[in-house]
Automatic annotation (TrEMBL):
Residues 107-128 form the HTH cro/C1-type domain. InterPro entries: Cro/C1-type_HTH. This is HTH cro/C1-type domain-containing protein. The lineage of its organism: Bacteria, Pseudomonadati, Bacteroidota, Flavobacteriia, Flavobacteriales. It comes from Paenimyroides marinum.
Length: 133
């Protein structure tokens, strides 16, 4: 692709001012790095991914407010984490962290564990304990 053909389409990440570095051929036939603000096919995929992630957050919110799961799941989804990532931050086996998703187990967690979750999610321990969505 030539330097002047590098796509500069709108991107959902545009508000973050994160241009992507791509390589193109300049007028002398040499490879040069060029900033691209977006590319339509990539933007379509990004929008679809964001929609799926937002749906997962909404489902978690609904499940927490209905008492099916603990707030840990909501904050995990909100922070775009999976069980393995959260377990790594907690420095625990995934099995134990998944158990904390059960409201009955969550309600028995120590203040120390809850504080660690709160720190990971960037919230206060009160926000975690007294979930309001």
């Amino acid at each position: 692709m030539k330097k002047n053909e590098v796509p500069q389409d709108d991107s959902p990440l545009k508000k973050h001012k994160s241009n992507e570095l791509v390589y193109a051929v300049d007028d002398d036939g040499k490879f040069v790095s060029v900033q691209s603000s977006g590319w339509e096919p990539k933007t379509i995929i990004q929008n679809q991914n964001l929609e799926v992630l937002n749906q997962r957050v909404q489902e978690a919110l609904n499940d927490v407010t209905s008492g099916k799961i603990s707030p840990i799941v909501y904050y995990m989804e909100l922070n775009r984490m999976d069980w393995q990532t959260l377990a790594a931050y907690m420095e625990q086996w995934t099995f134990f962290v998944k158990r904390h998703a059960k409201p009955s187990v969550f309600n028995k967690l120590s203040t120390r564990k809850l504080q660690k979750y709160a720190d990971i999610f960037g919230i206060s321990i009160d926000e975690l304990r007294n979930f309001k969505g």
